[in-house]
Design goal:
- This protein folds into two domains: 166 residues, Beta Polymerase, domain 2, CATH 3.30.460; 153 residues, cca-adding enzyme, domain 2 (Orthogonal Bundle), CATH 1.10.3090.10.
- The chain has 23 helices and 14 strands.
- The strands form four sheets. Strands 1-10-9-2-3-6-5-4 form an eight-stranded mixed β-sheet. A two-stranded antiparallel ribbon has the order 7-8.
- Strand 4 and strand 5 form a beta hairpin.
- Helix 18 packs across helix 20.
- It is elongated, with a radius of gyration of 26 Å.
- The N and C termini lie far apart (75 Å).
- The structure holds adenosine-5'-triphosphate (ATP) and magnesium ion.
- Magnesium ion binds next to loops.
Length: 455
């Protein structure tokens, strides 16, 4: 209460310099804020703390978009937050965050933090540690709102919405940048990328997602600093890449990555894929279809995306193995393993995806076999739908016969009697020329056998 009184009297001076916009200036409707975020802010506010909806949600609402999630920033410490919310938990290794549970939803509440250490920071300071090249290794020092805004990445990501007064607090000109569709780094871009090179990937991701252009000064250092991504743990790179690929804006995101030269150590296949018109067409269909799915509110599978991105690498490796005289099956399985391991070295995707990726690739051959019981058995396969979707993308881009994809589309919808008539009798079609062999192959993650039939 005392805190609230002080805030009432001195409140708007708490963080000197912010531009405070009233509702009619920013246009964000309070009823568009998630009720749990409103409730969380209200509880903090009633206890005398500052509480704002912050980051991506404010940016998206300002741009008339639907936010993905709602984060709250406050001057209460994690312990103080925990005491206010019975259903809450402190999480995080890199940063201490409190998850406040509200029905089935979770609101992420963070205490205002200070950013990079100043030049005179104590080297032994355990909470503020920088590594090689100025990289920020730990960043868990509490700060005030001004410091919290300064340690955020882009100006449009440093906007604070105060639900009590329906005000937007803009500390770095983010509202103006949002209007002009400019992505601008807060502070000195080169130094900010050196502190955390992942910000370069975030620049590409937000430029693609928001359809913003990257401010020239923010863009300039990327070309030279891109190799710093090699120092980032591959698991973190994977998380960031998945955000880009499953954002509903993957197609633009991937092009942006390549335009900025950020793909070399992460998705090296983009060079060969984007320079070859046929492969480019395949990737276009794969990413475009995924983007549509995500935008329609459906989920998209990381394994499917990886299967698409690595398809040509896999085929090239498979051909090489065959040319070397390897037996067909070992050529196939070796190619799968080689390509997945090579990619895992740069992007630590979980091994549990391997089984699905291999099955999607392996089933492409089985989809060509349309006689006897095979199509019926194939449709029972848990990964049939993914393999069929993959075939559709191949057909759309000329990598598989359109007739084959159409056949499968009709076959799935047909009545039993119609299906029998659709089967291609041995001797009548290309299926007859194929020699079928089947080999159960144990997937690496132990998730069960990967069944592949070779033509
Ligand atoms: P999205 O809608 O994609 O989730 P977001 O802006 O909410 O976008 P998050 O990754 O959820 O992005 O991060 C939340 C906020 O935390 C960002 O808006 C930004 O202010 C800050 N932030 C996140 N990562 C960084 C970083 N690497 N450096 C500086 N600030 C960051
Ligand atoms: Mg977010």
């Amino acid at each position: 209460m005392i805190r609230r009184f002080i805030r009432k009297v001195f409140g708007k001076k708490a963080a000197p310099g912010p531009r405070i916009l009233a509702q009619d200036a920013h246009g964000i409707r309070r009823d568009l804020i998630h009720p749990c975020a409103l409730k969380t802010c209200r509880t903090l506010y009633d206890a005398g703390y500052a509480a704002f909806v912050v980051g991506g949600a404010v940016r998206d609402l300002l741009l008339g978009r639907e936010p993905k999630d709602f984060d709250v920033a406050t001057d209460a410490t994690p312990d103080e937050i925990r005491r206010l919310f019975r259903r809450s938990r402190v999480i995080g290794r890199r940063f201490q965050i409190v998850h406040v549970y509200c029905g089935a939803d979770t609101i992420e509440v963070t205490t205002f933090r200070a950013g990079a250490p100043s030049a005179e920071a104590d080297e032994d300071d355990a909470d503020h540690v920088t590594g090689e090249g100025g990289m920020l290794l730990r960043d868990n020092v509490f700060g005030n709102q001004e410091e919290d805004a300064a340690r955020r990445d882009f100006t449009v990501n440093a906007l604070y919405y105060d639900p009590e007064n329906e005000e937007v607090w803009d500390l770095h000109g983010g509202v103006e940048d949002a209007k002009r569709k400019v992505l601008r780094m807060i502070g000195d871009p080169e130094q900010r990328y050196r502190e955390d090179p992942v910000r370069m990937l975030r620049a590409a991701r937000f430029a693609a997602k928001l359809e913003f252009h990257i401010d020239p000064a923010t863009r300039a250092p990327i070309a030279c600093l891109a190799p710093m991504l090699a120092h980032i743990p591959t698991a973190r790179l994977f998380d960031e890449m998945m955000k880009l690929l499953l954002s509903g804006h993957a197609e633009r995101g991937v092009r942006q990555l390549r335009a900025e030269g950020l793909h070399h150590g992460i998705l090296p296949m983009l060079d060969t894929v984007l320079d070859d018109p046929a492969r480019q067409k395949f990737l276009h269909h794969a990413l475009h279809d995924t983007d549509l799915r995500v935008r329609q509110g459906h989920s998209a599978s990381p394994a499917f995306m990886l299967a698409c991105l690595l398809w040509f690498d896999f085929q090239a490796e498979f051909s090489r193995n065959k040319e070397r005289g390897q037996h067909l099956q070992s050529a196939l399985f070796d190619a799968m393993d080689t390509v997945l391991e090579r990619q895992r070295d740069v992007l630590a995707f979980p091994r549990r995806f391997d089984g699905t990726i291999k099955e999607i690739w392996g089933m492409q051959g089985r989809l060509e076999q349309r006689s006897g019981n095979r199509p019926f058995r194939l449709m029972q396969h848990p990964r049939f739908r993914a393999a069929y979707d993959f075939l559709l993308i191949r057909a759309e881009s000329g990598d598989a016969p359109a007739e084959l994809a159409e056949w499968w589309t009709r076959f799935q919808d047909a009545e039993d009697s119609e299906r029998e008539a659709m089967l291609i009798q041995p001797g009548a079609g290309e299926g007859a020329k194929r020699k079928c062999r089947r080999k159960p192959h144990k997937s690496e993650d132990g998730a069960g056998p990967v069944e592949v039939i070779l033509g």
